Records
---
Amino acid sequence: MKEEKTYRQEAVVPDRGLPFKLFRFEGADGKYIREAHQHCSVEIFAVREGKADAYLGDKKYVLSAGEFMIVNSNEVHSIHTSGRNEAIVLQIPMEKQIMRFSGEKREEDEKLFALLEKMYRQQIRKEYGYELLMQSIFYQLKYLLLTVYQMSDERKEHCTENRKMGRLGKITGYLQEHYAEEISLETLAATFGYCPTYLSKMFRRYGRINYKDYLRSIRFEHALRELEETDLTIGEIALKNGFPNSQAFSRLFREKYGILPTEYQRRQ
């Protein structure tokens, strides 16, 4: 019997006050591999300078400056870079709806890339009221995705799996909103009308991650932001983001990132 491959399910936390996450690709200096993973978000990986080898499943795409790849929700993907490059990544959470987009080349590619570039420049400047401008540009880009790049119903594959991923997406969307609360697997299962064993299997099979690890990854994303942007104490950050106390938070933080949160905070 062929062994089923598993891939890490990532939690995508939008930028503060915005309905998306936008960032500079961390492998900008080259010789970097982002291993195969997936998440409940549509992702656009766009190369500004240099080249990058992008993989959707087993299919390889060589992206040069001015080109991008669209990754659908829960599509397995990875990035390999050998030389210096610069790329930007836009992640759009899609937990509450299933839409699929085609990355085939179109006349509008240049327009979509220009909107991404415009968003990236505004994010760097962060001038007064930039969030409003960012959202304005983002909705232009989203309109383009929906009207030009969205797949028609007859081209969607694996409908049954998409429905199940849609159910899991609603659950992960709920966790994104209630991550700071004390949410056990049993409580979550009761909220959505599942038995705990079935919900646990759903996370492992379709999310490729343990429920507890997924919830913790959301909490870490928010805690990192607090460490970087606020003067809150470690204890305050721990309690604010769903950790029982500062000791537990510090221990788990060191296990994940290799340093204590106090040291991370000092470096910021």
Note: The beta strands are 8-10, 21-24, 32-39, 41-49, 51-56, 59-64, 68-71, 77-81, 86-93.
---
Amino acid sequence: MAASVPLPMDPIAEARRQWIVHGWTDAADGMAAFSSVMRAHQLMYSRVDAVLKPLGLSYARLEMLRLLSFSRDGALPMASASARLQVHPTSVTNVVDRLEKDGFVRREAHPTDGRATLVVLTGTGRTLVERATRVLNGAVFEQPGIPEEDLLTLTGILARFRRAAGDFTDPPERPEPL
């Protein structure tokens, strides 16, 4: 959570200074970059959580509902959901369990693969994900607190980092902003 009163100085800049003072100059910029990304994640997640919590959603639950809503039939095998969301199958199972308990998804046997289970978006789930997306877009994504030209630069930098880390490979036609 963000502090209610801003700190009188940037603790990451101070940590960078201390890294240099202690002789870790070659690592100082990397430490500052990693620390900045992690702190930015905390700040961003807090904003998203504040918007979704009143709707009874976490970002993980929203991601699952949104993924299902983007699929052709509102259904995906659990293994596909795990791969596309880049989370462990156990995490998908936990999210699906909670969404199913709340009536937003249901499980069905895969019609052609007896080993697979489909996660299917319900009408209630579709209504909720559309509402949550509108609210999240208006309160956070349309007003991220970062100038638009910087958003594209930031996204590009992070995409290059993710690609180099093996997070994904380039498709034949690269979508924006990668």
Note: Residues 2 and 43 are 6 Å apart (CA to CA).
---
Amino acid sequence: MGRDKVMNWQMKHFAARQQGVEGLIEGEHSDYGNLTSRQCGNFVKIALERANQLT
């Protein structure tokens, strides 16, 4: 399964907004390589919290 199939772009942007780093993943030349390991780990934490709220 590809990375994009695990977390859709809306969830990625939601998680980025929650952390205040959405500007780092937007734009033609921006990508997730601009984030720290901690910020990427927080994406998982936010996604799990959101999934638990929806269930």
Note: Helices lie at 3-6, 9-19, 22-25, 37-54.
---
Amino acid sequence: MASIDIRRPHSLSQSEAHAVIDKVAARMREKFEVKTQWLDGTLAFERPGISGKIAIGGDEIRVSAQLGMLFSPLKGMIEQEIRRKLDEHFA
């Protein structure tokens, strides 16, 4: 099982960062059939083969995920896409 742990600084307010993550989560649900749920300041997401969290800190966004056997070989590509989306929304 492969894991992903990416941290990205941000300068948005909590509510602005929350709104951005909500937008990203809606796209994840639509495109990848991911189930999401907010628990305090953390968005948990899950689908067969992938589970993880997007945590909003005061000055940092942290994405962590566990990839099952099917997705482990795609770890590099998945990390690249996460980094691209974080740059797009939090640069």
Note: The chain has one domain: 2-90.
